[in-house]
Design the sequence.
């Protein structure tokens, strides 16, 4: 166990060093303040801290008072047993208690904005996202053929209301919530293993070993199981003692509906979804998070307060989190996030690269620093053609690789990067960025050279030689070759104007349509989009395949093929040719017995995307901007910013602190 | 008079039924429904919904039924249980949502209205009495500027000045420290500070219009025979002004009371969004955008009731104010 940990830690160190090197070679302007200090911090060898070596614990003054007045037990009793306490590494320095983190959010239906940074998964991703590390779980053992995962929990760990957290909470979640589908989600794909012979899916079995150990048994090898759980189902547990008081299975349908009405819900289903899935905004529900809800999320300010039973400490034994409250302040328009950041209403926020100039200009005055967190996007300016578009003429065109190449070389990427990304992005094709799984040599330069002659030649070769008096190419039936690009966001207007101009230069007529998000989503789900600008973003196709492999409805480039798979062939269109190969490779990947084999098939999927370039990109990926007040410390200079890694949560906000 | 009022009230009922049907019909007209909107919202946050999940959600919310069936369900609950349904967006009863924003909406509206009347009527009278004087020109110029400048732009300009000079764009109605605090003098003062921009912004537009109306009306009235007669009988100028022409000039202000009443309850919308004010306008706007049918429906119904009610009140007030109208109603 220990040996593995050391190997693991040194790997982390190595990788973090590598990412740090890569980051600086990108040549992006980083803030000057505290730069040296941070690089030093990263170079310093990580000392492995044995949790049981910490002799005494410290706690926030407000908790000390509560202990003294006898309202809560002492810190030793609140934390897990000494050897099971989790020691969190601090990024810069050991912090002090006090202050608040204040972020903007859109209100109670924006639950992920507070959900992601406060999330405590069973296993979390390490710094570069290449593997998972223990979090809520203390560790795991896996047998040789990756069918049996024994997962160890932390003894003495408690929910935020002081009730012990045990394997029963995992079993309860599995037996009474997830497999019963009480909260509107079906059992996640991670829990299924695939028979390599027949392709049949088998659901795993979850059994309790003792109070702090449980076992997940798959029928067939499932080497990616822990990573996939870390993405699909981060919280593989729920407070049994709370849910027993509301689930219809325990209180009866009638009583459950009564409780739902009492809580203000229209029906039991939406009540169970709000309590079982989006649970963290409910004051009544205990969690394992560093901060727990303390008031109505519909308030103008939603305040999450320090969890006195939080189970992480720093290496000096200070119980985390350092910061008192995690506050989400309601904004009605995205621009308020910027205004509030400038005005000092917020001390932490995430922004898009479009805001870079304004943020940088005000860095001094507003006393914050702009951190560039690399994204896992394929590109920052995408044109996504719907491969299953209904119009017959257009479908055979977009499925033709020459057409895609023509559209790709018809555009001057240098101009796009200058105008759309302020020159931050590179003039390259949509591809997997370096440093991520699936990166392919030469992909980024594929069809990236601006060459309108070549585009014209390709379009002629396809047979679109006839033109009308406006110079637009015609199909055989005499209708104009027209592409309607629909977007839900005016932010892409500049980019689309450029694209329209370039496409029309080579004779492809473009209509640009801006619609509201509801209409967009309606068209997306009904296969009415011809083309859009949705930016593909993938951490690892083996872990979250939807974007690259047609498995489900909802991806603009292949939704109709995805629907075919999702509905078991009842709806949608059967994929053919290379797209069908994507699905074949995915099926093989799921049935693979080792991680290496799975990666081989994943690589095949990436190669197919490289070869066919279904997703076109006109500017390289740009980083996400994380803005932190200068008084808010321990915010990492850079981490991959991805939903899979929980965005800012990847920086471990429990160890952020306010330095006066 | 009483008979007139009664007849008006009875006429209100079919109007409201018609309005509510139209409202419901219009809300569901745009493509998609709440579920597609929800899916879009969740997709933006990184969560994808499957077709199955969406269908199930639709069935739970009755969205798979014909809109008229949904309307009948809704009406049934309103009439039998006085239950206006649930807001999808907020996941709570519509009345709870409206209730939450009501107090601040009314505070903002009343203070703005008071500001408008207190500023507009005196200025209007002044520029009519002293028309073509320098004061009149200044008032008219400012009035026209106020009318021509879009509210939200003015809001942005004022926020900019506030940020540049005080380092705080004064968003919302409270500072962080008072947001969740109980009412105290400190909180009232904080609110007052934050109210300056909204009142100026929301108030200016209507003030400008009102000044023009007041001035125009008074100019019409000020040379009428009754005023000339009063003056010839030796009444003081101020007595004449307030007794006859001003009273008549108030007529258009009173007759637009119908709209004013519903405005009081919604507050402004665009300006409120720009200024991040927690009042009804933006809530309503988001309900329409998100196809939150019951919330939007209840709101529009409520507005219709208020408009009808407001018109009724303004008719009664007019009768009280204007003897000519009074006799007409009595005669009818």
Sequence:
């Amino acid at each position: 166990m220990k040996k593995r940990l050391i190997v693991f830690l040194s790997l982390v160190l190595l990788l973090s060093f590598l990412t740090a090197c890569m980051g600086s070679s990108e040549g992006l302007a980083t803030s000057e303040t505290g730069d040296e200090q941070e690089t030093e911090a990263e170079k310093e060898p990580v000392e492995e801290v044995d949790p049981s070596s910490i002799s005494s614990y410290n706690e926030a003054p407000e908790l000390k008072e509560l202990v003294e007045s006898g309202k809560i037990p002492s810190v030793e009793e609140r934390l897990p047993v000494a050897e099971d306490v989790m020691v969190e590494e601090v990024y810069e320095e050991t912090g002090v208690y006090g202050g608040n983190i204040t972020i903007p959010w859109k209100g109670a239906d924006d639950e992920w904005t507070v959900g992601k940074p406060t999330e405590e998964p069973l296993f979390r991703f390490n710094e570069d996202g290449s593997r998972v590390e223990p979090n809520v779980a203390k560790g795991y053992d896996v047998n040789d053929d990756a069918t049996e995962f024994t997962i160890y929990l932390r003894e003495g760990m408690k929910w935020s209301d002081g009730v012990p957290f045990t394997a029963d909470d995992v079993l309860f979640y599995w037996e009474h919530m997830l497999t019963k589908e009480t909260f509107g989600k079906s059992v996640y794909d991670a829990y299924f293993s695939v028979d390599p012979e027949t392709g049949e899916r088998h659901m795993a079995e979850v059994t309790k070993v003792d109070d702090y150990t449980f076992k997940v048994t798959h029928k067939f090898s499932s080497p990616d199981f822990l990573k996939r759980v870390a993405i699909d189902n981060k919280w593989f547990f729920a407070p049994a003692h709370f849910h027993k008081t509301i689930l219809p299975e325990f209180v009866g349908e009638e009583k459950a509906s009564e409780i739902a009405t009492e809580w203000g819900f229209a029906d039991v289903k939406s009540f169970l979804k709000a309590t079982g899935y989006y649970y963290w905004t409910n004051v009544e529900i205990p969690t394992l998070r560093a901060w727990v809800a303390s008031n109505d999320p519909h308030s103008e300010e939603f305040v999450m307060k320090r969890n006195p039973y939080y189970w992480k400490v720093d290496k000096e034994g200070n119980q985390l989190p350092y910061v008192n409250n995690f506050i989400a302040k309601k904004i009605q328009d995205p621009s308020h996030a910027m205004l509030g950041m400038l005005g000092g209403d917020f001390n932490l926020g995430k922004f898009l690269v479009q805001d870079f100039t304004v943020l940088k200009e005000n860095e001094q005055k507003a006393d914050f620093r702009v951190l560039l967190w690399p994204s896992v996007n394929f590109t920052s300016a995408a044109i996504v053609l719907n491969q299953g578009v209904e119009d017959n003429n257009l479908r055979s065109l977009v499925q033709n690789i020459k057409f895609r190449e023509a559209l790709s070389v018809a555009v001057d990427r240098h101009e796009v990067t200058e105008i759309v990304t302020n020159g931050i992005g590179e003039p390259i094709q949509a591809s997997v960025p370096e440093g991520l799984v699936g990166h392919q040599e030469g992909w980024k330069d594929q069809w990236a050279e601006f060459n309108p002659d070549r585009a014209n030649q390709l379009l002629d070769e396809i047979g679109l030689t006839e033109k009308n008096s406006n110079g637009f190419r015609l199909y055989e039936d005499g209708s104009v070759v027209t592409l309607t690009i629909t977007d839900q966001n005016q932010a892409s207007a500049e980019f689309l104007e450029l694209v329209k101009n370039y496409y029309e230069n080579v004779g492809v007529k473009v209509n640009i349509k801006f619609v509201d998000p509801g209409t967009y989503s309606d068209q997306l789900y009904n296969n009415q989009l011809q083309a859009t600008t949705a930016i593909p973003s993938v951490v690892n196709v083996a872990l979250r395949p939807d974007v690259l492999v047609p498995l489900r409805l909802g991806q603009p480039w292949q939704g109709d093929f995805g629907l075919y798979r999702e509905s078991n062939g009842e709806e949608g269109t059967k994929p053919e040719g290379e797209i069908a190969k994507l699905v074949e490779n995915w099926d093989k990947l799921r049935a693979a017995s080792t991680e290496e084999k799975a990666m081989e098939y994943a690589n095949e999927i990436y190669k197919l995307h490289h070869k066919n370039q279904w997703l076109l990109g006109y500017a390289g990926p740009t980083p996400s901007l994380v803005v932190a007040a200068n008084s808010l410390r321990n915010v990492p200079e850079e981490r991959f910013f991805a939903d899979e890694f929980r965005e800012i949560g990847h920086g471990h906000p429990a160890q952020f602190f306010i330095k006066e | 008079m009483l008979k007139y009022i009664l007849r008006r009230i009875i006429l209100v009922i079919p109007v409201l039924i018609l309005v509510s049907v139209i409202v419901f019909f219009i809300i569901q007209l745009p493509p998609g429904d709440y579920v597609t909107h929800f899916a879009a919202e969740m997709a933006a946050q990184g969560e994808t919904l499957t077709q199955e999940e969406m269908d199930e959600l639709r069935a739970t919310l009755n969205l798979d039924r014909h809109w008229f069936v949904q309307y009948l369900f809704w009406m049934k609950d309103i009439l039998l249980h006085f239950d206006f349904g649930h807001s999808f967006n907020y996941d709570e009863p519509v009345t709870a949502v409206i209730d939450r924003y009501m107090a601040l909406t009314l505070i903002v509206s009343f203070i703005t209205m008071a500001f408008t009347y207190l500023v507009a009527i005196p200025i209007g009278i002044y520029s009519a009495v002293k028309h073509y004087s320098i004061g009149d020109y200044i008032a008219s110029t400012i009035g026209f500027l106020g009318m021509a400048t879009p509210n939200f732009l003015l809001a942005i300009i004022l926020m900019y000045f506030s940020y540049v000079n005080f380092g705080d764009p004064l968003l919302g109605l409270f500072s962080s420290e008072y947001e969740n605090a109980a009412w105290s003098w400190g909180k009232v003062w904080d609110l007052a500070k934050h109210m300056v921009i909204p009142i100026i912004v929301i108030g200016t537009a209507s003030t400008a219009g009102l000044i023009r109306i007041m001035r125009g009306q008074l100019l019409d009235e000020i040379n009428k025979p009754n005023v000339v007669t009063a003056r010839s009988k030796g009444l003081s100028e101020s007595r004449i002004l307030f007794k006859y022409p001003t009273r008549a000039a108030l007529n258009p202000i009173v007759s637009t009371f119908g709209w004013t009443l519903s405005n009081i309850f919604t507050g402004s919308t665009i300006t409120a969004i720009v200024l991040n004010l927690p009042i009804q306008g933006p809530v309503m706007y988001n309900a329409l955008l998100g196809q939150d049918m019951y919330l939007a429906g209840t709101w529009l119904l409520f507005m219709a009731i208020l408009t009808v009610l407001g018109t009724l009140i303004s008719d009664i007030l007019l009768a009280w104010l204007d003897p000519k109208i009074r006799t007409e109603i009595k005669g009818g």
About this structure: Chain A has a mean pLDDT of 89.
